[in-house]
Amino acid sequence: MIHKLADRLRGRNKPAKEGYRTAFKATSLFGGVQVVTVLTGLLKSKLVAVWMGTTGFGILSLYNAAVNLIFSISNLGLQSSAVRDIAAASADKGKTLAIIKAVNRWVLASGLLGAFLTVALSPRLSRWLFESDQYVGAFVLLSAAVLLMGLFNQNYAVLQGLRKLRLMARANIFGALAGFVCSVPVFYFFREQGLAWTVVISALASAVVSLLYVRKLGLVLPKQDWHTSIVLGSDTVKLGIVMAISSIAVFMVQFVVKTYISHRGGLGDVGLYQAGWGLNEQYLGLVFTAMAKDYFPRLSQVAGDRRKVRKSINEQAEIAILILAPMIIAMLVFLPFVVRLLYSGDFDGIVPMTRWLLLGSLLKAGSWAISFVFLAKGHGKTYLFNELGIKFFTLPTYMLGYRLLGLLGVGYAYVLCYGIYFLWVGIVAYRKYRLMYSGVFWRMLAFTTTVLAAYLLMEPLMISGGLHYWLGIPLIVLLSIYSLRELKKRLF
User: Which helix (H) or strand (E) holds 460?
Assistant: First the structure.
C-alpha cells in the first residue's frame, strides 16, 4: 500500500518537475556549447591582446559593432520571428516546410540588401568610427560578412524552430572551432590588416557548418512562386520588423557608446570596454543562450495557456538564477587573475567595470525570462515599447557614466539600467496578462543579489594581499551549496 502511494506521488510530482528538467537540460546543453564558444573566443581575444594590444582590440570591436548594426537593420528580425512561426507550425509538416521556403527567400534578399548598404556606407563608416578614410576597403570587405551572417541565422532559425537542440549545439561548436582555426594564421601574418578578414572568415565558417546540419534533416522544400513567398513571409516579417527595431536599438547603443569612447578616450579605451563587455557576455552566455535558443520556442508553444506560461517563466528564471549565482561570485573573486590569464597586464583596467557588469547580469536573467512573453504571444508593439523605452534611457546613462567615472561608470550604469528594466517588464506583464514571478523567485533573487552586492561593496576595503579571498571563497562555497540544494529540490 505504501509503495503504491509513493509511486502515485512520484507520478504526480513528475509533471511539476518536468519543466525544471527541460530548462536545466537546455541550459546544460548550451552551457557545454558555450564553454567551447567561450574558449575559442577567449583564445582569439588572447591572440589579439598579445599580438596587437588594446588598439587591435578596439579596431576589431568597432568592425563588429558596424557589421552587427547593419545586419540588424537589413535582416528585418527574420532570424527571431521565423523561430516563432516555425515552432508554432511544427505540428503541420506541410505548413512548416512552406514557411521555411518563404523565410529562406526573404533572408537571401535581406542579406543582399545588407551587403549593398555596407558597401555604400563604407566611406562614412570609416570616418565616423576612425575619423579617417584608411578603413574604407575594410568595410567593403565586411559586406560579405553581413550576407553570410544572414545565411547562418537562416539555418539556425530552422534548427531552433524545429527544436533540434543537439544539431544546434554541434553547429555552434564546429562553426566556432572552424572560424578560430582559420583566423589564427591571418592574425599572425597580417595583424591589424587581417582583422576584417577574420570577421568574414568566422561568418563563412558558421554559415557553411550550419548549412551542413540543416541538410541532415532531409527537408524537401516545396516549389513556391515569389508571390506565395511574399504572402507567407509577410506575417513573419511584420513581427520580425518589430524585433529588428529592438535589435537595431541594442546595436545602435553599442555603436554610439563605442564611438563616443573612441573619440573621448581613444581606441585603447574601446579595446578595454570591449574586453570587459565580451568577458561578461561570453562567460554568462550559457544561460542567456539557452533562454534564446530553447526557452523562446518552448514558451511560444504554450503562449495561449496563462497557467503554463506563468509556470514556464518561473521555472526558467529560477534555474537561471541558481546556475548564475555561483558562477558570478566565483568570477568576482578571481577576476584579476582571470583577466591576466585571458588577456594581459594591459587589460587590468577592465576589472572594476566587469565586476558590476556581472552583478547586472543577474538582473538581466530575471528580466529576460518575462520579456520573452510579449514575443511568444505575438504582441510585438508591447515588446517594442519596452525595449525602445529602456534603450532611450540606457544610451545617455552609459555615456554619462563614462564621462564622470570612466569605464567604472559604465559598469554602474549597466546595473542601474537592468534594475529598471527588470521592474518595468514585470509591471507591464502583470498589467497586461496578470503574470508575475512567484514568491520563491523573489526570495531567491533577494538572497543571491544581497550576497553578491555585499562582496562588491566590501572587497575594496580589503586591499591587503589575499584578504579578499578570506571573504570571497566562503561566499563561493555558500552560494554553491545553496544553488545545489535548490536545484536538487527542483530536479529530483
Answer: none
User: Considering just the CA atoms, what is the radius of gyration of the chain in Å?
Assistant: 23
Which residue in this structure is represented by grid cell 529576460? Answer: 368
pLDDT band at 466 (very low <50, low <70, confident <90, very high): low
CB atoms within 10 A of CB 447: 15
- Beta carbons of 167 and 29 less than 8 angstroms apart: no
Domain residue extents for the chain: 9-491
Q: What's the pLDDT band for 155 if we cut at 50, 70, 90?
A: confident
The DSSP secondary-structure symbol of 284 reads T
- Identify the CA nearest to 332 among candidates 358, 306, 369, 360: 358
CB-CB contact of 357 with 394 (8 Å): no
The owner of cell 508571390 is: 227
Helix/strand/coil (H/E/C) assignment for every residue in 288-343: HHHHHHHHHHHHHHCCCCHHHHHHHHHHHHHHHHHHHHHHHHHHHHHHHHHHHHHC
pLDDT at 305: 82
Which three three-digit cell numbers place residue 254?
553599442
Q: Could you give the CA distance from residue 178 to residue 184 in angstroms, rounded to a whole number?
A: 10
From CA 98, how far away is CA 104, in angstroms rounded?
10
Q: pTM for this structure?
A: 0.70
Q: Are 375 and 84 in contact, with CB atoms under 8 Å apart? A: yes
Kindly tell me the burial class for residue 212, based on how many C-beta atoms sit within 10 Å of its own C-beta (0-12, 13-18, 19 or more).
Answer: middle
Report which DSSP code applies to 164: -
pLDDT tier at 291, thresholds 50, 70, 90: low
What tens digit of pLDDT does each residue of 374-431 get?
878 878 788 888 888 888 899 999 999 999 999 999 999 999 999 999 999 999 999 9
Residue corresponding to grid cell 551542413: 212
Here the cell at position 320 is 537561471
Alpha helix ranges (H) inside 131-221 = 136-161, 165-190, 195-215
Residue 81 CA to residue 79 CA, distance in Å, equals: 6
Q: Do 222 and 100 contact (CB within 8 A), yes or no?
A: no
